[in-house]
Design brief:
Layout lengths: L4 H14 L10 H10 L4 E8 L4 E7 L8 H12 L3 H9 L5 E2 H4 L2 H6 L1 H7 L4 E11 L3 E10 L7 H29 L10 H4 L2
Antiparallel strand pairs: 1-2, 1-5, 3-4, 4-5
Helix pairs in contact: 1-2, 1-8, 3-7
Length: about 200
């Protein structure tokens, strides 16, 4: 799908902010909040999941108020009935393209899933979209977006916006990785010029 001019301008504005120097960790609440302006969502998060251990290694929510002690209980509830169809799809195929829950499972069958009945449904969450950033047999990383029952499903426009953003998010990850490496690298510039000769 070709994005409209207004959408392209919004993506470029977001990318200009994302391409600014970042800290050692590439994702922050502030970045996710900006992304949520591009694609309205009830909840937006960055997640790294260990499917074998059935836990989130990293989970960053776009709403500080949503983060806290309740997350531990929420995570336990999710993994009791999950993972969801999207996580299974990522692990099975390695496909990182943006995928919606509705791409993988029909609405009636989705509502029959214990994960929906016990986890998503009580929270009024109906629609899920997921931007893949990395996946293996027992793990995956993604940005996940959730919408409530009285909202509409994520559109092809939303999918196209997320696809346009992936290379820039991955570039941000690469810069953060370099910053971590720099922070832990030994500083050879502080060595005296005659140190090398002394050790010979």
């Amino acid at each position: 799908m070709q994005l409209a001019r207004a959408d392209l301008e919004a993506v470029l504005d977001f990318v200009a902010q994302v391409d600014e120097p970042c800290d050692q960790e590439p994702y922050s609440v502030g970045l996710l909040e900006r992304l949520r302006h591009l694609i309205p969502s009830a909840v937006l998060s960055y997640q790294e999941a260990d499917l074998r251990a059935r836990r989130y290694v990293t989970l960053i929510l776009d709403d500080v108020a949503a983060a806290g002690e309740d997350d531990v209980d929420d995570d336990a509830l999710y993994w009791r009935f999950g993972p969801c169809s999207i996580a299974d799809y990522r692990a099975r195929t390695g496909d990182l393209s943006t995928v919606r829950m509705s791409d993988l499972i029909g609405r009636v069958r989705w509502h029959e899933q214990p994960l929906y009945r016990e986890y998503f449904g009580p929270g009024q969450i109906e629609y899920v979209a997921d931007l893949g950033l990395g996946a293996g047999r027992d793990w995956y990383r993604s940005v996940v977006l959730l919408r409530e029952r009285d909202e509409s499903d994520f559109s092809e426009r939303d999918r196209a916006v997320l696809e346009a953003l992936r290379p820039h998010l991955l570039a941000r990850e690469a810069r953060a990785s370099l910053r971590r490496a720099l922070a832990s690298a030994p500083d050879f510039t502080s060595r005296r010029p005659d140190d090398a000769r002394t050790r010979r």
